[in-house]
Every structure is written in C-alpha cells, then in structure tokens.
Amino acid sequence: MQGYAKKTLLIGLTTLCSFAASANNFNYNTFEIRMGASPSTFGGEFTTLFTQNAHFIGRIDSGFEQDWDAAAGIGFNGPIGQFADIYGQMLLHNIERNDDNNFKTEVNVGVKAWLMANIEVNARLGQLIDNDGTNSIVGFGARFHSTEQLSVGVDMRNNGTYGHQVLMSARFGF
After folding, report:
1. How are beta strands 133-145 and 119-130 bridged, if at all?
2. What are the residue ranges of helices labelled H in the chain?
3. Would you state the pLDDT for residue 154?
4. Are 169 and 59 in contact (CB under 8 A)?
5. How far apart are CA 141 and CA 155, in angstroms?
6. Which of 123, 174, 161, 135 is nearest to 36 (CA)?
7. Strand runs (DSSP E) across 4-99, as ranges?
8. Is residue 26 within 8 Å of residue 120, measured between CB atoms?
9. Which of 151, 140, 78, 87 is CA-nearest to residue 118?
10. 172, 149 contact by CB (below 8 A)
11. pLDDT in tens, 109-143
12. If we measure between CA atoms, which residue out of 44, 55, 37 comes closest to residue 112?
C-alpha cells in the first residue's frame, strides 16, 4: 500500500506542475475604461503580469461627486482547462464617500471562459472587508474580443461600494 501512496503522490505532483506550466487562456496585460449605470460611475483598471501566473492590479472608480474607490493589489491567474482560467485578487481599497474616507481590503475569486471563438463569459465572487463588517462582491458578464488588442464588455456587478450596477467597458491589451 505504501508504493501505491507514493505513486499517487507522484502523479498528483506531476499534475500540479503541468497545471502551473500551462499558458493562460486570457491576456492579463490590459488597460480598461468603464462606465457604470445606476448609479453613474466612470473608472479604469490596469493589470500586468509579473510572473506567468501572478499579476499586479490597480483600479479607480468615481461618480465625480467628490467620491472615489481606488484599489491596488496582487492577483493570481491560471488555466483550469483548455478554454477557462481561474483568477483571484487581494486588494487594498481607499474609499471616499459621503465625507467618509475608509481603507478596506478585498478578496475575490473568479473564472473566465470562452463561450465561442471571440465571446468570453466571466463571473466573480468576493468580499470587501473592514472593521465594521463586510460587503459582498458579485459579478458576471460577457465580453466580445474584436481583436487581440481590443474587447468590449457588459457586466452586472455589485462591487461592494456603489451597489448593483450595469457596467460597460472597453479593454485594451498590450
């Protein structure tokens, strides 16, 4: 039975090594501009890989009413099959709303998958955490990739700060 356990462990380690060595199915070197509705917001997001399976992220959103939600942090990304990636992020937020300035942390995990040749679907689940409690982060959407450098998307999202919104975005890959 010991030999069987060693073989199983060896097969498991080999599988994990091949998982980490696989290329991502999506580009994580991007710049995005977005507009939210109900409430109206504008924002941007920048991500860039620093290893094959890890990326830096920075983003900011505002309703231009002396408010903002700025966040920066790190994330992981990797393939979970030939047509899908899993990703997650740990972010530090600085939020200014209603004359109240707070620092909060965010932890999320999501999945991106190719539905068709140029159509991506995505979903994200997480929490925005501070000392007074937590807010859920939930989102799902779709994105059309017209070229490798340009895609447009629509998302239904609750980012924990502005509540439920429909977001429209343009993403530029580099």
Report:
1. antiparallel
2. 2-21
3. 98
4. no
5. 4
6. 161
7. 30-37, 41-51, 54-62, 68-79, 84-97
8. yes
9. 151
10. yes
11. 999 999 999 999 999 999 999 888 889 999 999 99
12. 55
